[in-house]
């Protein structure tokens, strides 16, 4: 209430988004994998959500070289925002395909705190994110508004489809 923002107040965002995306990357590459494409698809949706927030806040941000610390790359370059937005589209295309795959060793269930394993609901979120982040390119050459309308037709249609998590007694 005092509007006294400090430099350190902004560090928390960076230190929250990237570890979250690292967890998503591990699930995408290792734990979800080909045996559990539904989990991999959910992780791609979560990765895109966090990557989208990151590029919305800072524009350019590390992504293509991020998460390579184990191989010695501790200073990834910052990707242009348009590249990050294109990466989100790629993540969502992959998520939609993974979520449509019914050949899963383990299927999401009650361990999915958002949709309780409802991959159809996750797919709607993926389509909605495609539309949201494609709109960020609306002033770029080649933008086609019909792509947004098509994506939205497959996306979230009502409040019943909202992507919420339950913390205590209510959604947030």
What does this entry look like structurally?
The chain is mostly helical and 172 residues long. Helices cover 55% and strands 5% of the residues. The chain contains 5 helices and 4 strands. It has helices spanning 7-32, 37-58, 81-100, 119-135, 145-153, and strands at residues 61-62, 78-79, 166-167, 170-171. The strands form 2 sheets. A two-stranded antiparallel ribbon has the order 1-2. The chain has a two-stranded antiparallel sheet with strand order 3-4. Helix 2 (37-58) packs antiparallel against helix 3 (81-100), helix 2 runs parallel beside helix 4 (119-135) and helix 4 packs antiparallel against helix 5. The chain is globular, with a radius of gyration of 17 Å.
């Amino acid at each position: 209430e005092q509007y006294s923002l400090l430099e350190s107040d902004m560090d928390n965002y960076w230190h929250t988004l990237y570890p979250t995306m690292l967890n998503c990357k591990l699930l995408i590459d290792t734990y979800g994998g080909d045996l559990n494409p539904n989990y991999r698809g959910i992780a791609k949706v979560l990765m895109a959500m966090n990557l989208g927030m990151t590029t919305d806040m800072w524009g350019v941000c590390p992504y293509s070289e991020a998460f390579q610390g184990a191989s010695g790359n501790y200073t990834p370059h910052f990707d242009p925002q348009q590249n990050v937005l294109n990466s989100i589209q790629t993540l969502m295309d992959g998520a939609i395909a993974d979520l449509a795959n019914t050949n899963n060793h383990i299927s999401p269930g009650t361990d999915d705190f958002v949709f309780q394993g409802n991959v159809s609901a996750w797919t709607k979120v993926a389509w909605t994110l495609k539309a949201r982040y494609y709109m960020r390119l609306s002033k770029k050459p080649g933008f086609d508004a019909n792509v947004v309308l098509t994506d939205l037709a497959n996306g979230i249609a009502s409040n019943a489809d909202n992507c919420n998590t339950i913390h205590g007694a209510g959604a947030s």
